[in-house]
Structure to design on (404 residues):
């Protein structure tokens, strides 16, 4: 869901997962323009690193580049709440980075106005050794529950997987339909049904 | 955020051929958090008059209770139901009594008058009546509702077509507003029956 002027829905189909390069993804929360610009800027810096050092940048390095850049704009009103997810020589990496210059490494994060609701579902279902299908279903459910409770969240729940060979998009489900998939409306049972009287 | 946007609401009423329809969303929220998805915003005063209240939820409930009380007294004294025009004037007067500390609601009143002619009107929170022949809207989604109703409305629709029109107008409008939606509640009233229907909407 993409909001302009706080309460009016501009779009239900905004891409909130930004593809920095084929093996790194960034998520968008906060200001859309800020996130789009700074993620693209990060992609440029990662490519320059590759050219200068003849090897890919680590997720730790990429997230630090972004965090330091945002720190230098601290107090100027940027609004960026993002997660950098990628795969490097040390394996998978997930970092949370925000507009205050904060940077945290972790196994799971949820960001945005709907994040408390997503954390509830995420934390109760998470296991470090989950399979890809279980993890993708947990992610989808967490996003769905956030869209149900939070007014500012909604639209499409996109799920991506980041593996050793880069990222792939697993699914993009409309949460309006997900609701009736998880909580189907039971068909109404009529208490009394009028039938035609048999002709005499 | 203004106090009228604290709970979030959307109410619309449309007039048809010897019938009317009144519809509302079902969300009760506290700013951005959704608390309930089955909140009653439209209430029956009697078989031919309905009132839908948008705005602050506590005032919606209290004002409804006050209006039912006044109507019951009227029924005891006059031994008949109130006409919709009279009821609208009553609501307007009750709201203006609180001119300097108002009920934070915007009512939408819909009824069937004499000769089964539909009557619809809306009011602001201090009782300024606005009569209309076609449709009236109220709530946080009111701007979207104006657009949708203006595009979809035709005069003299029958009950079934009116139901379709009002439902589509409501659902498409609340999908553009974060604070209302999560289902819909529609009443279509003709001289012979009242049909109440729940709409399946986007729950985000």
């Amino acid at each position: 869901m993409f909001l302009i002027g706080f309460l009016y829905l501009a779009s239900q189909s905004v891409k909130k997962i930004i593809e920095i390069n084929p093996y790194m993804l960034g998520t968008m929360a906060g200001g859309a323009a800020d996130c789009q610009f700074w993620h693209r800027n990060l992609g440029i810096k990662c490519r320059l690193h590759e050219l200068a050092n003849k090897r890919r940048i680590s997720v730790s390095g990429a997230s630090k580049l972004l965090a330091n850049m945002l720190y230098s704009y601290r107090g100027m009103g940027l609004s960026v709440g993002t997660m950098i997810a990628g795969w490097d020589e040390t394996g998978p990496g997930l970092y949370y980075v925000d507009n205050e210059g904060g940077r945290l490494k972790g196994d799971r994060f949820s960001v945005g106005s709907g994040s408390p609701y997503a954390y509830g579902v995420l934390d109760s279902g998470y296991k470090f050794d989950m399979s890809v299908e279980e993890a993708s279903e947990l992610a989808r459910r967490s996003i769905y529950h956030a869209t149900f409770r939070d007014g500012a969240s909604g639209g499409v729940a996109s799920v991506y997987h980041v593996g050793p060979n880069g990222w792939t998009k697993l699914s993009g489900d409309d949460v309006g339909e997900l609701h009736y998939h998880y909580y189907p409306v039971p068909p109404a049972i009529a208490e009394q049904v009028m039938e035609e009287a048999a002709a005499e | 955020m203004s106090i009228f946007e604290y709970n979030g609401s959307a109410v619309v009423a449309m007039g048809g051929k010897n019938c009317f329809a009144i519809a509302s969303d079902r969300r009760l929220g506290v700013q951005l958090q959704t608390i309930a998805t089955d909140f009653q915003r439209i209430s029956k005063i009697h078989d031919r008059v309905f009132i839908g209240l948008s705005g602050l939820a506590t005032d919606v409930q209290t004002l409804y209770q006050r209006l039912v009380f006044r109507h019951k007294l009227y029924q005891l004294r006059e031994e008949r139901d109130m006409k919709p025009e009279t009821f609208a004037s009553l609501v307007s007067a009750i709201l203006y009594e609180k001119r300097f500390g108002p009920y934070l609601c915007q009512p939408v009143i819909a009824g069937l008058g004499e000769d089964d002619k539909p009557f619809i009107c809306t009011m602001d929170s201090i009782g300024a009546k606005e009569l209309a022949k076609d449709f009236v809207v109220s709530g946080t989604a009111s701007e979207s509702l104006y657009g949708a109703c203006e595009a979809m409305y035709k005069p003299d629709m029958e009950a079934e077509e009116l139901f379709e029109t009002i439902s589509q107008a409501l659902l498409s409008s609340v999908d553009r507003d974060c604070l209302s939606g999560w289902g819909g509640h529609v009443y279509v009233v003709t001289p012979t029956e009242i049909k109440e229907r729940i709409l399946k909407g986007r729950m985000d």
The CA atoms of residues 86 and 162 of chain A lie 6 Å apart. Chain A is about 35% helix and 25% strand. Chain A touches chain B at residues 1, 3, 6-9, 12, 113, 147-155, 175-176, 179-180, 185 (CB under 8 Å). Chain A has a mean pLDDT of 88.
